[in-house]
């Protein structure tokens, strides 16, 4: 090597060393102020907050945390821990943590093959999100009437099945569980997928199995309003790897979960355009703790309800809610049906006078998106635009005409939803509390109703 060439290489090496030496040092993108904002949201007072800031300020944060499920410098992210715990808890192969229960339902229906020209059978009672997610998947919801459990009546499913039906969506209603065996029998006989909406009964069981693990896909709302959750989140469960792939494709931007995320499809039909329903790390950090508490929470609710119902007499003029699995329901509410709304109004007045929190819709109740005829975004068949698919889809109109939704199509749901009396229960009731609540209910019923040992029981 010539002296000139050696000098050039030496100069180049020096230059490279110079440009890789970074002197600037910034502050963490996410640091102490963001941590304190979370602490404030927990409701700590000023003195406690000052103490927290003093303690955490002593810890060097370097570049700060990265609060997303991907690219985090961790052996396991909180989302991954939440999903792993969900698989262990429910005994399933696959779990996806998402941003909401509605997002879980949307992903599930797309995974199940819902699209233009298809129908999904939904219960007439249950939150609007179930049917709305069908519409978001460009399908059309068909409402099935309920029985005295307030869940989908299995005997009324078959007449609703057409060559457009691709799925059935049984929904857990306010802590109870659907009658899953006959529902599954109908689905298998007709080659339909079953998407369980378990948003209101996380931890409920049907004949020894967790709801959400009986059908093809189970969906949960993991939120502050539900048994498990601290903010807004959702969970999807399945044992079917292809359904898991398809649900992930919708929820994870079209394939971002894959080992090589930007690679071509590994098999025909693997990839399609999706959206982002990803669960955040902050939400997962709370929800993984919440899910661990779920069995104990559900056990407390069951104990409380059992302690109350065991003390109640039976009466001729009231019928308790039918329980498809009395030991498996979550049991955070006690429901019964007086023989008339007028009787219900008298019972309601006396229950409240005895400091028992009770409610009934009654005559002329306000619109409620838990009953099919009041779900206006569905019943009005309005899309985001005049040409939006689902109801306005040419494929659907050609085969099914124009579907309408009016009160009267599901008469049992119409009747029971209006005259149902619901009494909320507290998981922290003591035995004395349970005895007092039961006595207040019994005293009220005894005034207005006829005791009858042969009347329907409370369990």
Give the topology string: H per helix, E per strand: HHHHEHEHEEHEEEEEHHEEHEHHHEH
Residues in β-strands, percent: 5-15%
What is the highest CATH level, the class of the domain at 78-290?
Alpha Beta
> Counting H and I runs of at least 4 residues, what is the number of helices?
14
The CATH topology of the domain at 78-290 corresponds to Aspartate Aminotransferase, domain 2
Break the fold down into its secondary structure elements and pairings:
Elements: H1 3-19, H2 32-41, H3 46-56, H4 78-90, E1 94-98, H5 101-111, E2 119-123, H6 129-136, E3 140-144, E4 165-168, H7 180-190, E5 193-197, E6 205-206, E7 209-210, E8 217-221, E9 234-238, H8 241-251, H9 281-309, E10 318-320, E11 333-338, H10 341-353, E12 358-360, H11 376-379, H12 394-400, H13 411-419, E13 421-424, H14 431-448
Parallel strand pairs: 2-3, 2-4, 4-5, 5-8
Antiparallel strand pairs: 1-9, 6-7, 8-9, 10-11, 11-13, 12-13
């Amino acid at each position: 090597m010539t002296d000139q060439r050696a000098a050039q290489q030496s100069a180049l090496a020096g230059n490279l060393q110079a440009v890789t030496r970074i002197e600037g040092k910034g502050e963490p993108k996410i640091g102490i102020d963001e941590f304190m904002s979370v602490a404030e949201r927990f409701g700590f007072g000023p003195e406690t907050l000052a103490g927290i800031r003093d303690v955490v300020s002593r810890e060097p944060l370097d570049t700060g945390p990265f609060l997303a499920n991907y690219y985090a410098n961790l052996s396991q992210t909180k989302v991954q821990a939440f999903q792993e715990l969900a698989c262990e808890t429910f005994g399933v192969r696959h779990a996806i943590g998402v941003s909401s229960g509605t997002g879980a339902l949307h992903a599930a229906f797309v995974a199940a093959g819902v699209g233009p020209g298809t129908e999904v059978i939904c219960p007439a009672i249950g939150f609007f999100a179930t049917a709305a997610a069908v519409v978001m998947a460009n399908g059309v919801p068909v409402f099935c009437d309920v029985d005295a459990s307030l869940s989908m009546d299995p005997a009324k499913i078959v007449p609703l099945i057409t060559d457009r039906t691709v799925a059935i969506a049984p929904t857990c209603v306010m802590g109870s569980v659907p009658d899953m065996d006959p529902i599954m029998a109908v689905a298998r006989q007709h080659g339909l997928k079953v998407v369980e909406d378990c948003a209101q009964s996380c931890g409920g069981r049907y004949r020894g199995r967790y709801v959400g693990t009986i059908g093809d896909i189970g969906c949960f709302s993991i939120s502050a309003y539900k048994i498990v959750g601290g903010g807004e989140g959702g969970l999807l469960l399945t044992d079917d790897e292809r359904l898991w792939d398809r649900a992930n494709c919708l929820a994870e931007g079209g394939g971002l979960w894959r080992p090589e995320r930007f690679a071509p499809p590994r098999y025909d039909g693997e990839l399609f355009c999706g959206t982002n329903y990803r669960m955040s790390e902050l939400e997962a950090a709370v929800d993984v703790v919440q899910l661990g508490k779920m069995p104990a929470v559900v056990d407390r609710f069951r104990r409380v309800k059992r302690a109350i119902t065991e003390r109640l007499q039976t009466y001729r003029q009231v019928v308790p809610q039918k329980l498809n699995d009395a030991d498996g329901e979550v049991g955070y509410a006690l429901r019964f049906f007086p023989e008339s709304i007028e009787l219900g109004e008298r019972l309601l007045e006396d229950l409240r006078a005895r400091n028992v929190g009770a409610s009934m819709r009654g005559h002329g109740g306000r619109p409620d998106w838990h009953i099919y005829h009041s779900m206006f975004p569905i019943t009005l068949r309005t899309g985001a635009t005049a040409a939006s698919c689902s109801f306005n889809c040419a494929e659907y109109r050609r085969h099914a005409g124009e579907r309408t939704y009016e009160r009267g199509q599901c008469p049992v749901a119409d009747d029971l939803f209006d005259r149902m009396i619901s009494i909320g229960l507290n998981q922290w009731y003591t035995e004395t509390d349970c005895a007092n609540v039961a006595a207040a209910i019994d005293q009220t019923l005894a005034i207005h109703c006829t005791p009858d040992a042969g009347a329907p029981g409370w369990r």
